[in-house]
Specification:
By secondary structure, this protein is an alpha+beta fold. GO terms for molecular function: ATP binding; pantothenate kinase activity.
């Protein structure tokens, strides 16, 4: 006899046959008395007891993500706290149900939580089939044909609900009723926070502390769900929320890059285990590595602060096999976790929210992830806000899908009252249809054609009105990234920064490509690459379709390097060109993303990007421009500078006029104690703001010091000079004053001025002379002149040199002019 069930059950509505048995409609979910089941209350993802819930409800709901499948199912079980009569009733009911069908429900049961890797989806299907979870609560065990003939339905959310719908139909004979992902995340989080005690907790320095949530003062809060990508949602109440932000650098990025960097030998969980034995100081460039093991106390950076993730790789002549997998895994984990905490905090500050909850299966109770996220929020908020985590962090979507049986039934997608803003999950692969107003009507600035925009490969110069230039945001991208709010001449604040900059791109790029390429060569490779081979796109998750509800086209990047996770390939199977462009897009878009959030936070309409990482590269500028343009809905534009890599040197050059070579600076600059990147350890960086200090030229700001890229370039010049065949010049004295000195915090004003002057001269010579016709043929001669300049520069450190400053400068620029004349004459 066929079974006919009302629409509110797990079966689709159908017209009953004359002899069909009509079963009573299922009851609503009863969450009264919900609590963590005893026996596993200390473990991860503990079962949730529903003591008053009848078992005539659908058993199963799924959240099928790009990396993992999360499964929530309901089962009957004895409650250890139940009285004897309740236990007897439950036992009798189980015996009846095992023998034949029954027409009454039994109260009491538990919600259980399981996960499977998406690439091993057949294991999930086998489990569902073995437990007969797709056949319903009070119904007898069913066959494949029975399920298909009766149109059995399972609630599901996530992109995989679209991708694998046909597979579920073929294997189990069931249809997947697709619930909106954002609705499910919010519904699941609200249920846990309101119904379950000891669900939320903080985790700092390895210490876990449960937080009691006031159900009457829960809203609003920020929910950060970290899966393959990251969604950031502002929750205002039940059914009312805004998806305000997101990033493509999430769990899929960690797993994809981790697999490539470790030879694809490890799964997601194994990579996390590796990180527990790692030491990221062997991979990451710390502030102490740059500044001679000293703190940079002016802006609150301890020597152990990460200045550039993977930045140490750039300066070491080592290959991928020379690095421990444990160290690589930890460095990558810290980079991604800190970046997520950073972006989440900026959004919380923009919207004035004091509660930030982090969920998603990327966290999975991992101490290092939680500590890093917590430290990002705590450090940047100066202790005013705390990151909070959920015990069932990875099952918010699946729980929400389970709850939707009661609210919506199995027929159709939720529309509800939720409010979703069209802000993307990740970096758009193509610009789409975002448009904005022109900047062509701005007045002229002092230097013509210095600033320009760059979108979709098109460069457009912008005229800056000198009387309406301030305030603006300046983003300087070197090994790390500094974000500076400029209010006027000599008045600025360093408001933010990130450790994921040029050093990260170069370091990871070198490792993934076998350390065969330089920075310039990696950039050239990216121009021939296709990131769609590496990155997981929205269309890959949603079966080629857009996620139009929140404005994501199919070509939007959902997870950088996310496609690697589901493919059985090794590092050698991927083209270096594709790896380079995927990495470049991820780093560039993330920088544009963080810059835009800061501009929004401070109400700034002009954002200028500089630093030698940009170096006029079209892909970098397009990725940054798309990030700003897309997230601002065209209201703001990223602007770049013709001399993007020489801001620091130009600033130092300008200081000659104002302060002289040996004079100290008494400037009104204001620097806030906000770090360059992610701190390796808390250290001693929690200091008070240092303002109005009388500092030397090299410490006026980060831009008044040679950036690490310039220092590396100058080092290369020195190394080349010293290796000239047949060279007889001994540069012992010069070696003590090599360009590395420009990276130290020194209290010798004379030495500092000399290092800056040396940087100016060498950069002018190299950038100017080497571009002249025929310069390549006379490189050795030019390098000899550079060697002469290095030796001559040492004169400034001799006794009495300060008194002869003007004469020395005349000689230096005479040598520069003579060098250029020689190049022309030879050509």
């Amino acid at each position: 006899m066929a079974l006919s069930v009302p629409q509110s059950s797990i079966w689709n509505e159908g017209k009953p046959e004359e002899n069909d048995e009509v079963l009573p409609a299922r009851r609503l979910l009863n969450l009264n008395g919900a609590a963590i089941c005893q026996g596993n209350s200390q473990g991860r993802d503990p079962a949730i007891l529903l003591p008053n819930q009848s078992d005539d409800i659908p058993l199963l709901a799924l959240d099928i993500g790009g990396t993992l499948i999360k499964l929530v199912y309901f089962s009957r079980r004895e409650d250890p706290l139940a009285d004897d009569q309740q236990k007897k009733t439950l036992k009798e009911g189980q015996e009846v149900s095992n023998g034949s069908s029954r027409s009454y429900p039994i109260k009491g049961g538990c919600l259980h939580f399981l996960k499977f890797e998406t690439r091993k989806i057949n294991e999930c299907l086998d489990f569902i089939d073995s437990k007969q979870l797709h056949c319903g609560g009070i119904y007898p065990r069913c066959s494949f044909e029975a399920a298909r003939n009766n149109n059995a339905v399972i609630k599901a959310t996530g992109g995989g609900a679209y991708m694998y719908a046909n597979l579920f139909k073929e294997r189990l004979g069931v249809s997947l009723d697709k619930e909106d992902e954002m609705d499910c995340l919010v519904s699941g989080a609200n249920f846990l926070l309101k119904a379950i005690d000891h669900e939320a907790f903080t985790h700092m320095d390895g210490q876990k502390e449960f937080v009691q949530i006031d159900k009457n003062d829960l809203f609003p809060y920020l929910l950060v769900n970290i899966g393959s990508g990251v969604s950031i949602i502002k929750v205002d109440g039940d059914g009312s929320f805004q998806r305000v932000d997101g990033t493509q650098a999430g769990g899929g990025t960690y797993c994809g890059q981790g697999m490539l960097l470790t030879g694809c030998k490890y799964s997601f969980d194994e990579l996390l285990e590796l990180s527990q034995r790692g030491d990221n100081k062997l991979i990451d460039l710390l502030v102490g590595d740059i500044d001679g093991k000293m703190d940079y106390s002016k802006i609150g950076l301890s020597a152990s602060t990460i200045a550039s993730s993977f930045g140490k790789v750039v300066s070491e002549k080592r290959e991928l096999k020379d690095y421990r997998h444990e160290d690589i895994s930890l460095s990558l984990l810290r980079m991604i976790s800190y970046n997520i905490g950073h972006i989440a905090y900026l959004n919380a500050k923009i919207y004035g929210l004091k509660r930030i909850f982090f969920g998603g299966y990327f966290i999975r109770g991992h101490a290092c992830i939680m500590d890093t996220i917590s430290y990002a929020v705590d450090f940047r908020s100066k202790g005013a806000e705390k990151a909070m985590f959920l015990r069932h962090d990875g099952f918010l979507g699946a729980l929400g899908a389970f709850m939707s049986y009661e609210k919506h039934g199995p027929s159709g997608l939720i529309v509800g009252s939720s409010i979703c803003r069209m802000i993307p999950n990740g970096a758009p692969y193509v610009r789409g249809t975002v448009h904005s107003s022109s900047l062509a009507d701005l007045n002229e600035k002092a230097i013509h054609h210095e600033a320009f925009t760059h979108m979709d490969g098109k460069k457009k110069f912008v005229q800056i009105d000198q009387n309406d230039m301030f305030p603006y945001l300046l983003v300087n991208i070197g090994s790390g990234v500094s974000i500076i709010k400029v209010d006027g001449d000599g008045s600025f604040q360093r408001v933010d920064g990130t450790h994921a900059g040029g050093g990260t791109y170069c370091g990871q790029g070198m490792l993934m490509t076998g350390c065969k390429y330089s920075f310039h060569e990696l950039l050239e490779l990216s121009q021939q690459g296709d990131n769609k081979v590496i990155d997981l796109l929205v269309g890959d998750i949603y079966g080629g379709m857009d996620y139009s509800k929140i404005g994501l086209s199919a070509s939007t990047i959902a997870s950088s390097f996310g496609k690697v996770v589901s493919e059985n390939k090794e590092l050698e199977d991927y083209r270096h060109e594709d790896i380079s462009v995927s990495l470049l897009r991820m780093i560039s878009h993330n920088i544009g993303h963080i810059a835009y959030l800061n501009a929004k936070l401070f109400g700034l309409k002009r954002i200028f990007f500089g630093g030698y990482f940009v170096r006029g590269h079209p892909c970098i500028m397009d990725a940054i421009s798309n990030a700003v343009d897309f997230r601002s809905k065209g209201a703001e534009k990223a602007m770049f500078l013709q001399h993007d890599g020489f801001l620091g040197v130009l600033g130092a050059f300008m200081s000659f006029e104002k302060h002289g070579l040996a004079d100290s600076i008494d400037g009104p600059s204001i620097s806030r104690t906000i770090p360059t990147g992610a701190p390796y350890s808390k250290g001693t960086s929690d200091g008070p703001p240092l303002a109005g200090l009388n500092e030397k030229a090299s410490e006026c700001s980060n831009l008044c010091r040679c950036s690490s890229w310039m220092v590396k370039f100058l080092r290369c010049v020195v190394d080349t000079v010293l290796s000239i065949k047949g060279g007889t010049m001994k540069l012992t004295e010069v070696e003590t004053h090599t360009p590395a000195a420009a990276t130290r915090i020194t209290h010798d004003k004379r030495e500092t001025s000399t290092c800056i002057l040396k940087g100016i001269v060498l950069l002018l010579v190299y950038e100017g002379v080497m571009r002249l016709p025929g310069a390549a043929r006379i490189r050795e001669s030019i390098l000899k002149f550079l060697a002469f300049l290095l030796a001559y520069e040492g004169v400034m450190h001799l006794r009495g040199a300060a008194r002869k400053r003007d004469n020395i400068l005349q000689h230096v620029f005479f040598v520069l002019a003579f060098c250029m004349y020689t190049a022309y004459y030879t050509a």
